[in-house]
Design goal:
By secondary structure, this protein is α+β, with helices and mostly antiparallel strands. Helices cover 31% and strands 25% of the residues. The longest helix is centred in the first third of the chain and has 22 residues. The two termini are 22 Å apart. Bound molecules: zinc ion (ZN).
């Protein structure tokens, strides 16, 4: 392998020019696969889901057949621009301005994918035929969406095909203010509850003949929002419950409503499973009493990958390149790491997330170069311990 060194900024720009808003691919994975095939990776294009808009494009690529197999996981899909006219540049133009590469996906997370591929090239070139492990990439086109036909399905495919991941680095933008200040070693779980309270309709002048669903809903939400769920744990913030909406939609001021609805969202730490939380909710709602239904959906359980070799090596790589000591955090929303952690130890580290999902998303070119160096150093520490 004596290819010219791959420029992560050029590769990131090529990816940004593909407007791959979930679940559209628009050729983004072609760009990734072409870069990887040049480096000797075997690429598997995995398309899951029905025809049309539900169809999700994914990629699993591997170089080498030995162990350990270190996997980099990420996504080429991006969130919508929210109206391109609000942007100071074309969201899919990959403009370079004031030392930053600008466009949707620059930090979340086309930049990190480009950085990892450049790092892999540099590492593989240096090791040459002496490298006996494997480097793989699991890239999905459905992280920002339902995440049903993305990472989950690819992991099933890997299991079916006897592919084993020994460790995984997820390239989400975990840095908070400066590159290297934070890595994620776990994530909180997320559960949504749709609560419907059933009462008896009536005239507001005759409340003794009715059962006001709105009053009971208010009492239930009061109970849920004024009690502490927990005080956090060693690596997690306290669990939180937020009311997302309250809907009664009663147009008449003299009618007592028969039904009232609310949606709550709970972000929970490793003291809870979603099953435990459901029992707790039922207890609290039963205390208020009356007829109600609660439908819950869980987008992810909480998980923690206890700090250990993988996170220590990543932290060491970050220190060597940036001089910073990263905080080991479990804050923020869910990520595809929630699926991968069932297969192998996983850590998450990537660019500064300040502009992600926002208008004028951008990555400093200096950060992109440093991230490439960090990933490169991490590969050396992971495979060669040096
Ligand atoms: Zn992301």
């Amino acid at each position: 392998m004596s290819e010219a060194a791959l420029d992560p900024a050029a590769l990131a720009a090529a990816l940004i020019r593909r407007p791959s808003v979930t679940p559209r691919d628009e050729g983004a994975l072609d760009v990734v696969a072409a870069a990887l095939e040049r480096l000797g990776f075997t690429c598997h294009r995995l398309v899951f889901g029905g025809d049309g808009s539900g169809r999700v494009h994914n990629l699993y690529a591997r170089r080498g057949s030995g162990r350990p197999n270190l996997c980099f996981a990420g996504h080429t899909d991006v969130v919508p621009t929210g109206g391109a006219e609000a942007w100071s540049f074309d969201p899919f133009g990959a403009t370079v301005r004031d030392g930053a590469l600008c466009g949707r996906g620059a930090v979340d997370m086309k930049g990190a994918i480009a950085a990892f591929i450049a790092a892999a090239q540099s590492y593989l070139d240096e090791r040459g035929p002496g490298f006996t492990g494997s480097i793989s990439l699991l890239i999905t086109g459905d992280e920002e969406g339902a995440a049903i036909n993305g990472t989950c399905r690819v992991l099933d495919w890997l299991t079916e095909h006897g592919e084993i991941l020994d460790a995984c680095l997820v390239g989400e933008p975990t840095s908070a203010q400066a590159l290297g200040d934070m890595i994620k070693i776990g994530r909180r779980g997320s559960m949504t509850g749709r609560l419907t309270v059933h009462g008896v309709q009536g005239h507001t002048a005759y409340p003794h003949l009715a059962d006001n669903a709105a009053h009971r809903l208010v009492a239930m939400l009061h109970a849920l929002t004024t009690t502490e769920i927990d005080r956090g744990s060693e690596h997690f913030q306290p669990s939180t419950l937020q009311v997302s909406t309250i809907d009664i939609g009663n147009p008449a001021s003299n009618v007592i409503p028969a039904t009232a609805h609310a949606v709550i969202n709970i972000r929970f730490n490793d003291r809870w499973t979603s099953e435990m939380l459901k029992s707790r909710l039922a207890e609290q709602l039963d205390m208020v009493g009356g007829r109600y239904t609660l439908d819950t959906s869980v987008s992810g359980e909480s998980f923690l990958v206890s700090p250990g070799t993988l996170s220590d090596r990543l932290a060491e790589a970050i220190r060597r390149v940036t001089g910073r000591t990263p905080e080991f955090s479990t804050t923020g929303g869910t990520s595809d790491a929630r699926f991968i952690q069932a297969h192998c130890p996983v850590v998450e580290f990537g660019l500064v997330g300040l502009t992600m999902h926002k208008v004028d998303e951008r990555v400093e070119l200096a950060d992109l170069a440093d991230l490439t160096q960090i990933y490169r150093t991490f590969l050396g520490l992971y495979f060669d311990h040096s």
